[in-house]
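Below is the data:
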Amino acid sequence: MKNYFLLLLTMALSMFKTQALAYDLAIENADGVTIYYSFTSDGKTLEVVRENEYAPKIYYKGDVVIPEEVTFMNRTYKVVGIHSYAFYYCEELTSVTIPSSITKIGEYAFCSCKSLTSINIPDGVTSVGREAFSHCYKLSSANIPTSLTVTAAGMFAECENLETIEIPNSITTLSESTFAKCYNLKSVYIPNNVIKMEAGVFRQCSGLESVRLPDDITKISTSSFYNCTALKSVKIPESVETIDDYAFSGCNKLDTIIIPSSVTSIGKGAFACDNLGTVISLIKTPFAVTGNSSNERTFSQNTFKYGTLYVPAGLKNKYQSKNGWSDFRYVEDGLPSNVPSVIENNKENEVYDLSGRRQATLQRGTNIIHSKDGSTKKVLIK
């Protein structure tokens, strides 16, 4: 009887092992590193996978070069994908070379690769899964390929050391939490082709000092810049109609905000910024916002009590008759004399660094400015 149960246990373990195997081929690359592959649905191409999806401690280490194609039994197969979780939690993976043959990277593919310092995603990749590169804490440089039109949700979330990122003109949508908690990200230029930014794109990017929003965006989504505590200024484009809940909440270095006339809705906590002392509203038909008596007040208590609200001439009474706006202690009937120039100056010239990367605003060091009149000049910021 004992032998019978031992046989059953052996069979069960064997079945589990067979089911746990996540690969079809195991082939060494040119460096002698064994890479595991599974066939895609067409049975003719391959994608990189984990050796064993049920054993997270069995993983890739060191420098890994993924080949464009592999040969097995005199037959050559093209490598076209990196499967979901393929390199998940590979804490000792220091670098990976992704070939140009790759078109798809699955969800969590490189999540929590804590020793990975840089990644180059080749043009040709048209699909990236959720949080593909999230929690790569040492990742300081990365790129978004021009073949992508939509970033993955949480694509670089919690990449704490990511300092710069260039968003290509091909991108039309920045998905939810794409750069959330990228604490060292300091400046971002978002090209005009981006027409949609989902919730929390830059949430808790505490080092973010400047951002350039695209001209045609109509909505600043929930928590887009929540707790971006270093953000000093932002121009809200005249295309924006909706500013959602907590969009700029916790941006405590913001001292002035201009709300364009196009805005028809402002959510709770949207501008809960402790040091926001000047609110310039160009809205001609004011609507209710969440007032000072609520814990989810649209503006901070400090702003309501000590800040100044500037409104278009002749509209002071309209604002003071609307919930929320009426809680401002100080309201000026008429805009500051410099508002037209402020708005015009915020239609920024193109700013580049010396390596040719587009910047949101002038940065410390040498800046190359392409002016609207076609001229170019260098500006040194110390």
Remarks:
- Residues 1-21, 344-348 have pLDDT under 50 and may be disordered.
